[in-house]
Amino acid sequence: MCSKERAQIRIYSRPGCHLCEKLVEDLLPRIRGKLELEVVDIDTRPDWQDEYGTRIPVVEFAGKFICQYSLDEDAIDRILADISAS
After folding, report:
1. Which residue of 6, 12, 80, 82 could cross-link 58, Cys pair, CB 3.0 to 4.6 Å?
2. CATH number of the domain at 8-85, please?
3. What local confidence, expressed as pLDDT, does residue 2 receive?
4. 3-class DSSP state for residue 13?
């Protein structure tokens, strides 16, 4: 990763998902200025539909599952601490 490029956290979601909106709302203040956020619509790809179905939102960082349905603040804090240390 280029030194100017921020690490990215991904949320698998779909439009109209109230749990997804709540998770993004809770996550943004914690990561602002530290991580890029990518919210992807699972309905745009059949493989995401198959994998996630109604099991959204799902948070992933560096290709690894972090949490689903609600924000795991401790896990996000560990990610931020690891990023700060590197």
Report:
1. 12
2. 3.40.30.10
3. 41
4. strand
